[in-house]
């Protein structure tokens, strides 16, 4: 959300209409970092306006604005819980909820990790994120199904400890090469999946940044009962081409 500057109303409109997924989703959940506690663009305002479930955890105050992690959903959010991460430079945290889909209960985690440490420890920021990932995973169910997403700030790429730890825990994450989400170069934002038997997930980075400094990652998770729907990538590719800026 780029400290509340992201165009959340337009993003949610495109998500609900199917412009980002080829067909309108039966339900959706959005994981937002750097959301602000109040204001026209905030998750809380949009939730109240559109009848969505929401959960916000404040992380820090910057310029008088309280910012943090937010989760918005057309589904009820159960057991909302905030998880503080080991502090390296700035406060960092994760938001945890549960959702029920097709008779299955999954945990959903929205996390925002450290982007850098002090200048004299700059080369060790991947270690800081590794410590935060390890602490977060310790709090999650070891054998439960779930989805984890957010800004991991993995500046140094797929060899980072945080990236490897998440991929190991969430074994149903699509194996496709990760796409840049920041300045068309860095892969900072991720979605990871541990899904029930027969479920599938596919994801992609959206070309429109919606006023943020990062590009959103959008995924479709298909429950086993609907697993015969396999033409989403083609429909989505056409839809994304249609919506790309010249």
**What is the rounded distance between the termini?**
23 Å
Q: Identify low-pLDDT runs.
A: 227-246
| Element-by-element helix/strand order | HEHEEEEEHEHEEEH
* Helix run count: 5
Backbone structural class:
alpha+beta
CATH topology: Deoxyribonuclease I, Chain A
| Domain module tally | 1
Nearest-integer average pLDDT: 89
Specify the oligomeric state. Answer: single chain
Helix content: 10-25%
Largest sheet, if any?
5 strands, mixed
| CATH level-1 class | Alpha Beta
What's the Cα radius of gyration? 17 Å
Q: Kindly report the name of the CATH homologous superfamily.
A: Endonuclease/exonuclease/phosphatase
Under the CATH scheme, which architecture would be assigned? 4-Layer Sandwich
Percent range for β-strand residues: 25-35%
What general outline do the C-alpha atoms trace?
A: globular
Total beta strands:
10
| Arrangement of strands in the largest sheet | 4-5-6-7-8
Structure commentary:
Helix 3 packs parallel to helix 4 (161-169). 22% of the residues lie in helices and 31% in strands. A five-stranded mixed sheet has the order 4-5-6-7-8, with helices on one face. The chain has helices at residues 8-17, 43-50, 125-139, 161-169, 232-243, and strands at 29-36, 53-62, 65-73, 78-84, 93-101, 104-112, 146-151, 189-194, 200-205, 217-222. The chain contains five helices and ten strands, in the order αβαβββββαβαβββα. Mean pLDDT is 89; it is low at 227-246. The protein has a single domain (8-240), classed as Endonuclease/exonuclease/phosphatase (Deoxyribonuclease I, Chain A), CATH 3.60.10.10. The protein has 246 residues and is an alpha+beta fold. A hairpin with a 2-residue loop joins strand 5 (93-101) and strand 6.
């Amino acid at each position: 959300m780029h400290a509340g500057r992201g165009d959340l109303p337009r993003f949610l409109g495109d998500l609900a209409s199917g412009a980002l997924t080829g067909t309108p989703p039966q339900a959706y959940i959005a994981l937002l970092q750097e959301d602000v506690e109040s204001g026209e663009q905030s998750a809380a305002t949009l939730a109240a306006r559109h009848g969505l479930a929401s959960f916000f955890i404040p992380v820090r105050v910057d310029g008088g604005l309280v910012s943090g992690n937010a989760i918005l959903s057309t589904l009820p959010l159960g057991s909302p819980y905030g998880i503080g991460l080991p502090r390296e430079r700035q406060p960092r945290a994760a938001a945890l909820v549960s959702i029920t889909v097709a008779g299955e209960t999954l945990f959903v985690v929205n996390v925002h990790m450290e982007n850098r440490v002090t200048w004299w420890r700059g080369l060790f920021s991947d270690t800081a994120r590794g410590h935060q990932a390890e602490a977060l995973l310790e709090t999650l169910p070891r054998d439960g199904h779930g989805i984890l997403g957010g800004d991991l700030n993995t500046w140094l790429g797929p060899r980072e400890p945080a990236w490897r730890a998440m991929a190991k825990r969430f074994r149903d994450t699509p194996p496709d090469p990760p796409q840049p989400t920041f300045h068309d170069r860095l892969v900072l934002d991720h979605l990871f999946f541990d899904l029930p038997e027969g479920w599938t997930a596919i994801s992609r980075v959206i070309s429109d940044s919606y006023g943020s400094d990062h590009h959103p990652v959008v995924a479709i998770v298909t429950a086993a009962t609907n697993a015969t729907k396999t033409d989403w990538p083609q429909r989505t590719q056409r839809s994304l081409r249609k919506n790309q800026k010249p």
